[in-house]
Amino acid sequence: MNIVFGMKSNLTLDAWDKPMLEGQEKKIRSFYGNPILDTPTTEASLIQRYPSYCRPNIWPRNALPELEVAFKALGKLIFDIGLMLAYHCDQYVSKGMKIHKDEGLESILHRSRCHKGRLLYYFPSQQG
To answer: Comparing C-alpha atoms, which of 49, 53, 69 is closest to residue 61?
Structure first.
């Protein structure tokens, strides 16, 4: 089964990370996607230059139908909290320097189309 979010090259369900945890090798599967926009852009030059951020999401609707809704809901929650934090960062920075309305961190994050979320699944180690 190949499931891809965001990038068709190496970000698939078959891609493995193998960090060492507690002296034992753990296998991890990673899922990447944009939780805010399914298609961040259709501009071919941007997709070619930044494929991991600009390619559209591909959801496993048949194999795992609940993933899309859960991923987007959690991603939106994290995004909204990030915007609230950015607002307060802007308020703090504006006490020391002038920030134009569209130049603050909150505005930059709000305008961005390149959000990325990552879900990890850690396989249990096999006791030998």
So the answer is: 69
- pTM: predicted TM-score of the whole model, two decimal places: 0.72
Identify the H or E element spanning 105.
helix 105-111
Quickly tell me which residue has 């997709």 as its tokens: 47
Model confidence pLDDT, tens digit, residues 57-100 = 999 899 889 999 999 999 999 999 999 999 999 999 999 999 88
The encoded tokens of residue 73 equal 């809901």
3-state SS record for 36-95: CCCCCCCCHHHHHHCHHHHCCECCCCCCCCHHHHHHHHHHHHHHHHHHHHHHHHHHHHHC
Answer for the pair 67, 60: CB distance below 8 angstroms, yes or no. yes
Range of the domain at 22: 16-122
Tokens of 100: 């134009």
The CA distance from 90 to 82, in Å, is 12
Look at the chain and report how many structural domains it folds into.
1
9 in any annotated domain: no
